[in-house]
Design brief:
Layout: H1 2-27, E1 28-32, E2 38-43, E3 46-52, E4 58-62, E5 65-66, E6 69-74, E7 85-90, E8 96-97, E9 110-113, E10 119-120, E11 133-136, E12 147-149, E13 162-165, E14 169-172, E15 185-188, E16 192-193, E17 206-209, E18 220-222, E19 235-238, E20 242-245, E21 258-260, E22 267-268, E23 279-283, H2 287-294, E24 299-302
Length: about 300
C-alpha cells in the first residue's frame, strides 16, 4: 500500500513537471524572425528583441512587430558592444529598453525614444561616447503612464550635448548622466532626480526642472550631489512639485548665480549650495526664504 502511494505521488509530480515545462515553453519561446535577422523571445504574444543575427551597422530601426507579434521591449544587452551602429530609431509601441541594451555602442550618434517607452534600464546607453542628442518623447497625452531612466543609463556619454525628457518620465536614476561632460542643456519634468545624476556635467549651463498642471499630485526631489561640480551652470529653475534638495546637490557649481525655488520645497540638505555665490529666488513666507535667512544666503522674493 505504501509503495503504491509513493508511486502515485511520483506520477503526479512528473505530470505536474511536464505541464509546467510546456507552460513555460509556451510563455517564453526563443526565436529568429522570418527574415533571419532578428532574435527574440515570445512571451504571451509580445516580443522582446534579444539581438541581431549579424552585428548591425549604420542606421537601425527597431520594428513595431515581428512575425505578426507586437514588439514590446528590447532585452538586456541586446545590442551591447555594437560599435558600428550610428543611429537608432525605436518603433512606437516599445515600452521598455533593458539593462545595458546599447552598452558601449561607441559609434552611436543619435537615438529617438518614443513616448510609449516607460522604462530605460540601468547602463542602457553607458559610454556611448559619440551620442550627441537624446530625445525621450514622454508625453502629457499619457497622464497615467510613468516612466523611469535607470542608474548610469547615459553615464560617460562624453559628447552628449542636449537632453529633452518628456513629461511622463517620473524618475531619473542615480548617475544617469554621470560625467556627460559636453551636456549644455537639460529640460527635466518634475521627477525624482537620483544621486549624482548630472555629476560633473561641466558644460551644463541651464537646467529647467518643469512644473506642470497636467501632474498636480506629482512630488519630486533632487538627490545628493545631483549637480555636483557643474561649474558652468549659471541658472536653475525648479518647478512646483519638487519638495526636497539633497546634500551637496549643487556643490561647487561655481558659476551658479541664481536658483528659483518653488513654494512646494520643504527640505534642503547639507551644503546644497556649498562653494557657490548664489542668490535664491523664493516665494514670500516660504521654506526657501527662511533657509536663506538662517544660512545668510542672498535671496530675492517674488510674489508669483
Amino acid at each position: 500500500m505504501c509503495k503504491r502511494f509513493l508511486s502515485d505521488i511520483i506520477v503526479v509530480m512528473l505530470v505536474a513537471f511536464l505541464i509546467l515545462s510546456v507552460a513555460v515553453g509556451v510563455a517564453e519561446e526563443e526565436r529568429t524572425d522570418a527574415s533571419g535577422q532578428w532574435e527574440y523571445l515570445l512571451n504571451d504574444g509580445s516580443v522582446t528583441i534579444t539581438g541581431y543575427a549579424m552585428k548591425p551597422e549604420g542606421d537601425l530601426t527597431i520594428p513595431t512587430e515581428l512575425d505578426g507579434y507586437v514588439v514590446g521591449s528590447i532585452g538586456n544587452m541586446a545590442f551591447a558592444y555594437c560599435d558600428s551602429l550610428i543611429t537608432v530609431i525605436i518603433g512606437e509601441g516599445v515600452t521598455a529598453i533593458g539593462d545595458e541594451a546599447f552598452y558601449y555602442c561607441s559609434g552611436l550618434t543619435a537615438v529617438t525614444i518614443p513616448d510609449s517607452v516607460t522604462s530605460i534600464g540601468d547602463q542602457a546607453f553607458y559610454e556611448c561616447s559619440w551620442l550627441t542628442t537624446v530625445t525621450i518623447q514622454g508625453s502629457a497625452a499619457f497622464p497615467d503612464r510613468e516612466g523611469s531612466i535607470g542608474n548610469m543609463a547615459f553615464a560617460f556619454c562624453s559628447n552628449l550635448t542636449t537632453v529633452t525628457i518628456g513629461e511622463s518620465v517620473t524618475a531619473i536614476g542615480d548617475e544617469a548622466f554621470y560625467y556627460c561632460s559636453s551636456l549644455t542643456d537639460a529640460i527635466i519634468p518634475v521627477a525624482h532626480i537620483g544621486d549624482r545624476a548630472f555629476y560633473e556635467c561641466s558644460e551644463l549651463t541651464t537646467v529647467t526642472i518643469q512644473d506642470s498642471a497636467t501632474f498636480p499630485d506629482r512630488e519630486g526631489s533632487i538627490g545628493d550631489q545631483a549637480f555636483y561640480g557643474c561649474s558652468e551652470l549659471t541658472t536653475v529653475t525648479i518647478g512646483e512639485g519638487v519638495t526636497a534638495i539633497g546634500d551637496e546637490a549643487f556643490y561647487y557649481c561655481i558659476g551658479l548665480t541664481s536658483v528659483t525655488i518653488p513654494a512646494s520645497l520643504t527640505s534642503i540638505g547639507y551644503a546644497a549650495f556649498g562653494a557657490c555665490e548664489v542668490t535664491l529666488i523664493a516665494k514670500e513666507d516660504s521654506f526657501a526664504e527662511q533657509y536663506a535667512k538662517e544660512n545668510e544666503i542672498p535671496y530675492r522674493l517674488v510674489t508669483e
